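#lab-general

N.A. 3:47 PM
ok so I finally got the sequence cleaned up, no stray characters, all 499 residues accounted for. can someone with queue access submit it? mine expired

B.Y. 3:52 PM
send it over

N.A. 3:53 PM
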Amino acid sequence: MELAEREICYRALQTRDARFDGFVFVGVATTGIYCRPICPARTPRFEHCRFFSSAAAAQAAGFRPCLRCRPEAAPDLACWRGTSNTVSRALALIAEGALDGGDAGVAALAGRLGVGERQLRRLFLQHLGASPTAVAHTRRVLFAKQLIHETRLPMTEIALAAGFGSVRRFNEVFQDMFHSPPGALRRQGASGELPLKDSVTMRLRYRPPYDWEAMADYLRARAIPGVEAVDGDGYQRTVASEGEAGTVRVFPLPRERSLGVTIRFPNVRSLAAIVARVRRVFDTGADIGTIDEHLARDRALAPLVARRPGLRAPGGWDGFELAVRAVLGQQVSVGAARRLAGELVERYGEPLPATAGGNPGLSRLFPTAQRLAGAAVIELGMPRARRAALQALASAAAADRNLFRPFGTVEEAVARFRAIRGIGEWTAQYIALRALREPDAFPAPDAGLLRGAAQVAGMFAGRRPGVDDLVERAEPWRPWRAYAAQHLWAAQAGGGHHD
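B.Y. 4:20 PM
back already:
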């Protein structure tokens, strides 16, 4: 890092500038501790400071997390640094546990991303300042530390939830890093709050602004009866993982610049994956200020951005579920797609076990790919061609468990989806946008998107653009065309076939 950049980071530390939170971490040579730029501790001298682009880089350099500002509580913005989509996709897979086995998994991770292992390591060092393994290790440590501070889970369960191979290893890491056992950190950071029975509640930070109302409206319009519910208490849904089931509730905490998450699930090993899915659905990792600033450079788009600051691009809870929703939404309204999804769940979804508890309105699990693929004929009130597309989609997903995980480039992902019978360009781009969280995915054939673009003053002079017109017009919006699409959908009241 150049001297001028270090001086800017130091000024951010001196002024406790929240704009740098999540982007810069400060290691203090005299204490061996690394902090967020908003840390309330006394500002160290400039010559004692080292600045890092990620928590993983700070820990790899030998610094340990601060107990006052808690780096694990910083907005999780690592995937927005630099311009590497490969790193972003890798981080999504790491969050799901792709490297919990250690260095041996890096080659497999690189293969799934369509790059060489050496190239992946180089990209991580360039954009995050640490290796993939170091990033995975830091995520484990910080997730465990967050659970220690914010929950009352026993230490053995925290070790399992954070992906440590054993409780002994968990204790060794914390003893080495903090010179005290994990239990001592809980005594220092205890909040005194008691959890609900059989549940875990924690906070997920985001970079403001955050348009919660837009997110809630989006989810409410598409909530599948029995699986999801949106009310004044937030968003709730049923979840399934590794043969077990539970529920999750997400609610806004605007004063804390956070979303609250309450998880009721029998296996703590699934906690990290469930939290990663919540982040994906609610797009908490977006550097929304940078995105909005980029899109606002387009004079026609600028008024839309000013009208809806903090508008996020909602994700899908599960790749297969999202793809099924997309097929159900082909050529029909949002309401009709929701009714079809409810009918599908009623016919093929498993009932939620009584032990899962939670909202009485949550009663069923979304059907698995194996369940739908095994059906001789999917009985549903829609045209035969779309039922055949649904069956082909289920068969493809059952045969390839990684079908809806990041793999290669967005173009390669779209081509992979389009190879499935009944999946066209719109559906493939929509799956890439919602399920793979590709920030540059752009379903240009969407009727609502075309209608929204036509209504924006100064964009197409009031005429209805064609698909090629919109694709060409969207070039300056790269690499965040997905967010531009969200603004265009919000600009028109009627909505598209699915948005």
